[in-house]
Every structure is written in structure tokens, then in C-alpha cells.
């Protein structure tokens, strides 16, 4: 049977490598549960070859003047923008996210990051510092590329995350071997081909395909200098432990259970809009989602009333219809996981189900695309009367499931918001900006918002606190994560100081 997309193989030495696999699997369209393409798992020997390809390319690429690397990466960013809709359709097929989202967010924000780091290194971002110690001595520093790095992507924002990792990596003069998630791998060779067309030399950006065993082999590889991973906390701990045990550099962007705090003076309509954005965008499959929604006790009736009124504006359906803004979950295993959490919230936690639940969405019965009935569709779900000890409140569900909790005082909500071992994101909604800054300063999270949610522009360094990660991505600090610094002290006095002179 012919599949919608061509097979995916490893990509190194500047081309697809069709003879690098002894097994394959299929990537699945989440909307219909039908196969999209055959993905050929990269063998360990082929991973070694990809790493060797990167090693061969590294000396010349790292020695290329930053402004020349910048020009190549700027061309790649322009190609991504020119092919925005084409790549967005691939992302929609692979992730189940509506085209209205992938066409305006996923490729666009990835290209923004690529352009940002190209401009940063082209404008002197790789420059070091100098310091005059005394008239005849001074210190200078240089920023040096690390070598061959591994990027291990996640399934919820495939092309964006691939660019968040490869853009600063390549801009700094490193080479990368990238492994996409086995659930959403279609973007990987498309990105490799864009880089190649833009002029990125063979071996600088390479792709390997497969599951966790491929990622583990890559992370442990003795010739890998750094591992950048995005994924769940438990897996991130294993990857970080393996990499750091070999003294590799690591960047970990892991999960969260973020607090969305509605302060007492907030406009109810805006608070509802913010909470919905923080829970239902991307079908809730966002690591920074504000799934613990804290509202003042007195606001609860009005908040829930307006929330129920606005839930009708969540529009599942044909993913290529520009009016659709809600898609299926990414895979069958994840679908089963999210539904089990909803069931637990109803039957075990005994939270009040305000809307949604485990039943098949009613709109599927009348949808013209009958294949959608087999897809991984769930209802956007809201629980209320929640307490901090409930499983649905404590654990990351990674789906469209909101938990509403009430509080009496600002000090109380700050304490409860911080009562978690993860600290990826948090946000507040209020008219009082002075109070907003005071609350944000006390929230234990690495990414925070005031009167908005979710935006992570290229200029904004983002990373988690606690068990939500190590290091940051994007912004000026993001470049520092891909270089190692060298300090040199120069003595010009004409004599070498010594304590071993003859008395």
C-alpha cells in the first residue's frame, strides 16, 4: 500500500542514507490512526557513521568566520519561511495539530530562532572579553565550539524544537546529530534538506531515526560533546545521568505542572481566556501548560460560568480547515494515558467534572471524514473543586485537562503554587502590575508570564527550575550553552616572575 509520505532514513554526509537500517516502523496520523510513512531505524553502526561525518565536518565549520556561518543560516531561515505551509502540513499530519496552528506557530517560531542566532553570531556574539590587569599584563577570553553534539527532540513541537537545538548549535560552530521523536519524525529530513540547500556543509547537520534505544546510544557515544534533550522528567534524568557521567555538557528541557494564578482583581473574561490558552492550546500537549488554575474563592462562580460559555469556542474538526483550533492527541499510548487520568479524576480523586470526560466527542458522529472516528480525539476537560493532593493536580497529564483550585489569600496561593518538585513555568493575571511583579518574584519557576501565557520568543531565554531541567534555550544565554570558554593571561613585562630566584 502506498503511504502519503516517502520513507524516512538517516541523513549524513549531506544526503539520505537508505542502507542504514535493518528494521522499520510506521509513523501514524493521530487524526485517523492511519499510517503516514515507513521510518527506518538507524543501526548503531550507522549512528557511528553519522558521528564520524560530523567529526570530519567540524574543523572546517568551526573555523568558518561567524559572519559566513550567519549568512548560510539566514538563507536556511528564508527557505523555511518560503516553505512554511508545506512543512506545516507535514507537521499537521504527523502531530495532529491543526494547520491553523502549525502554519502560524511551529515553522515560524523555529525560523525566528534560527535567524536570531545567525544574527547574534554575525553581530559579534562569539566575541570574548578583555581585561587590563596592570600596565604590562592583560586577560582575554574566547568562546570555542564544543564539537559534535546530540539533539534529541520531542513529539509535541517537532520542527520548532529541532531548530531550537540546531540553530545555536550550528551558529556557534558545532556539528549536530539529531534524533527526532519516533512519534513525529517526518520533519527531520525536511529540515536536513533545507540546511543542505542553504549551504550548510555535509556532516554539519545529521539525522538518525528510531526510538529510545537510538537516543540512548547517541547520548552515550564517546565522541559526543553535548546532549540537548527535550522530554519528560523521568527520561530526562536518565539521559542527563548517562551524559554527565561521561562529563558531557547537557541541556535538559523537561516537564512541568505549572500554576496559572488568577489574582483577586483580575478581569474575569481575561482570566478565563488566559486559563483556556494555558490548558487547551495544542490540545494541552505543551510542557509549560498552566494546568493548576488557582482562582480566588469569591471569583469561582463567575469564572466557571464564563469558562463554560467560552468552551464552545474550542473547535475540533478537519485539521486543514482554518477555523479548526483543536486536534487529537499525538498517539495511541498517549491517548490511553490521558484518558486514564481523566477517569482517575472522576472515579478516584472525586473531583467535580465541569465539562468533558472520557466519552467519545459527540461531533465525531456527524463528521464527514469517517476515518476521524478512529483517531485519538478527546474532549477538552475541566475539573473543579480540586485539592492539592489529587493525582490529576500533582502529576503532569500533558493533555487538555484543567484543574480549578480556589484560595483565600495571596500568600497562600504562592505557597501552594510552589509546592511541587517541578518548576518549569508559572503566570499571573491581574490589573495590579506592582502586585504581579511581587508574586512572580516569589514563584519558583524558570519561565513566567504576566497577563499572557505561552509565548517564548527567540530573544527570551527559557529553562526550568527544580526537576524541570538544566540550562536554558534561546536568548543570549542560549548561545552560551553551546560554547566553552578559554581564558588567557598575557604577561608583557619582559621577565617571567619566579619565587625560585637565587638569594
Automatic annotation (TrEMBL):
Transmembrane residue ranges: none
PROSITE patterns named among the record's database cross-references: ALDEHYDE_DEHYDR_CYS (PS00070), ALDEHYDE_DEHYDR_GLU (PS00687)
SUPFAM superfamilies found in the cross-reference section: ALDH-like
UniProt KW keywords: Metal-binding, NAD, Oxidoreductase
Pfam families, per database record: Aldedh
EC number of this enzyme: 1.2.1.3
Domain Aldehyde dehydrogenase, first and last residues per copy: 21-487
Reaction it catalyzes: an aldehyde + NAD(+) + H2O = a carboxylate + NADH + 2 H(+)
An example molecular function term from Gene Ontology annotations: aldehyde dehydrogenase (NAD+) activity
Active site positions: 253
Alphabetized CDD domains for the sequence: ALDH_F9_TMBADH
Annotated family: Belongs to the aldehyde dehydrogenase family.
Annotated protein name in UniProt: aldehyde dehydrogenase (NAD(+))
Species annotation: Clathrospora elynae
Taxonomic placement: Eukaryota, Fungi, Dikarya, Ascomycota, Pezizomycotina
Amino acid at each position: 500500500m502506498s503511504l502519503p509520505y516517502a520513507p524516512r532514513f538517516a541523513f549524513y554526509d549531506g544526503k539520505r542514507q537508505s542502507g542504514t537500517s535493518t528494521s522499520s516502523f510506521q509513523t501514524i496520523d493521530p487524526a485517523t490512526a492511519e499510517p503516514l510513512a515507513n521510518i527506518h531505524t538507524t543501526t548503531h553502526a550507522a549512528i557511528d557513521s553519522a558521528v564520524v561525518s560530523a567529526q570530519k565536518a567540524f574543523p572546517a565549520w568551526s573555523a568558518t568566520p561567524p559572519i559566513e556561518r550567519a549568512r548560510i543560516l539566514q538563507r536556511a531561515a528564508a527557505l523555511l519561511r518560503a516553505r512554511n505551509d508545506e512543512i506545516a502540513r507535514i507537521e499537521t499530519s504527523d502531530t495532529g495539530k491543526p494547520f491553523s496552528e502549525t502554519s502560524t506557530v511551529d515553522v515560524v517560531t523555529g525560523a525566528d530562532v534560527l535567524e536570531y542566532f545567525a544574527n547574534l553570531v554575525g553581530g559579534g556574539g562569539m566575541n570574548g572579553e578583555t581585561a587590563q590587569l596592570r600596565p604590562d599584563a592583560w586577560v582575554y577570553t574566547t568562546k570555542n565550539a564544543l564539537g559534535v553534539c546530540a539533539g534529541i527532540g520531542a513529539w509535541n513541537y517537532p520542527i520548532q524544537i529541532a531548530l531550537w537545538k540546531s540553530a545555536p548549535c550550528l551558529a556557534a560552530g558545532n556539528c549536530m546529530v539529531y534524533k527526532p521523536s519516533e512519534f513525529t519524525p517526518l520533519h527531520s529530513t525536511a529540515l536536513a534538506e533545507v540546511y543542505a540547500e542553504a549551504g550548510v556543509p555535509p556532516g554539519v547537520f545529521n539525522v538518525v531515526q528510531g526510538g529510545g534505544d537510538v537516543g540512548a546510544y547517541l547520548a552515550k557515544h564517546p565522541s559526543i560533546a553535548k546532549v540537548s534533550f527535550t522530554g519528560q522528567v523521568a527520561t530526562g534524568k536518565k539521559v542527563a545521568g548517562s551524559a554527565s557521567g561521561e562529563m558531557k555538557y547537557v541541556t535538559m528541557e523537561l516537564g512541568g505542572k505549572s500554576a496559572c494564578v488568577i489574582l483577586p482583581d483580575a478581569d474575569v473574561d481575561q482570566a478565563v481566556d488566559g486559563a483556556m490558552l494555558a490548558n487547551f492550546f495544542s490540545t494541552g500537549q505543551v510542557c509549560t501548560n498552566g494546568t493548576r488554575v488557582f482562582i480566588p474563592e469569591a471569583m469561582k462562580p463567575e469564572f466557571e460560568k464564563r469558562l463554560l460559555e467560552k468552551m464552545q469556542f474550542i473547535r475540533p474538526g478537519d485539521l486543514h480547515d482554518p477555523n479548526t483550533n483543536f486536534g487529537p492527541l499525538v498517539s495511541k499510548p498517549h491517548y490511553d494515558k490521558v484518558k486514564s487520568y481523566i477517569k482517575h479524576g472522576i472515579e478516584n480523586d472525586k473531583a467535580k467534572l465541569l465539562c468533558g470526560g472520557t466519552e467519545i466527542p459527540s461531533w465525531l458522529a456527524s463528521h464527514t471524514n469517517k476515518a476521524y472516528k478512529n483517531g485519538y480525539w478527546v474532549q477538552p476537560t475541566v475539573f473543579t473543586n480540586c485539592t492539592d493532593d489529587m493525582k490529576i493536580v500533582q502529576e503532569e497529564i500533558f493533555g487538555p485537562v484543567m484543574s480549578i483550585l480556589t484560595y483565600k489569600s495571596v500568600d497562600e496561593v504562592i505557597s501552594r503554587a510552589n509546592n511541587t518538585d517541578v518548576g518549569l513555568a508559572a503566570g499571573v493575571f491581574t490589573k495590579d502590575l506592582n502586585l504581579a511583579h511581587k508574586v512572580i518574584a516569589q514563584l519558583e519557576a524558570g519561565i513566567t508570564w504576566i497577563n499572557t501565557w505561552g509565548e517564548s520568543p527567540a530573544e527570551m531565554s527559557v529553562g526550568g527550575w527544580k526537576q524541570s531541567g538544566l540550562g536554558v534555550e534561546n536568548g543570549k544565554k542560549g548561545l552560551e550553552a553551546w560554547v566553552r570558554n578559554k581564558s588567557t593571561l598575557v604577561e608583557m613585562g619582559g621577565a617571567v616572575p619566579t619565587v625560585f630566584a637565587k638569594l
